[in-house]
Amino acid sequence: MSVPESVDRVLLTAAVVVILIAGAGLLSRIWRGPSMLDRAISLDVCAALIIAGLGAKSAFARDPFYFPIMLVLAFLGFTGSVGIARFIAARDRPTPRRGADGTGSSDGRQGDAR
Description:
The structure is a single chain. The protein is mostly helical. Helix content is about 70%, strand content about 0%. The chain has helices at about 5-30, 35-60, 65-90. The radius of gyration is 23 Å and the shape is elongated.
C-alpha cells in the first residue's frame, strides 16, 4: 500500500469515528429534548449523518453506488425540515385580537380579505 492510500485510509477512519461520536451525541439530544424543535433538528442532523456515513462507505469501497441514495436522502431531509418548520411556524403564530367592533383588528379597521 502506498503512502497516499494509507493516508486516505487513516483520514477515512477518522471521519467514521467522528461520525459515530456525532451520532452518539445526536441520540442523546433526541432522547433528552427538551423541546420538540430540538428533537426535530436532531432528526434532520441524523439524516445528514447517515448521508455522511454513506459517503464514507462509498469512499472506502471506491464505489459510486451510494450516490443516488445519498441524493434521495438529502432531498427527504430537506423536505422534512421545511415541513417541520412550517408546522412549528403555524403552531407558534399568534392569534389575532378581536377589536371593539367585533372585527379581527384592534384599531377598528376591516382586515384585508384573503
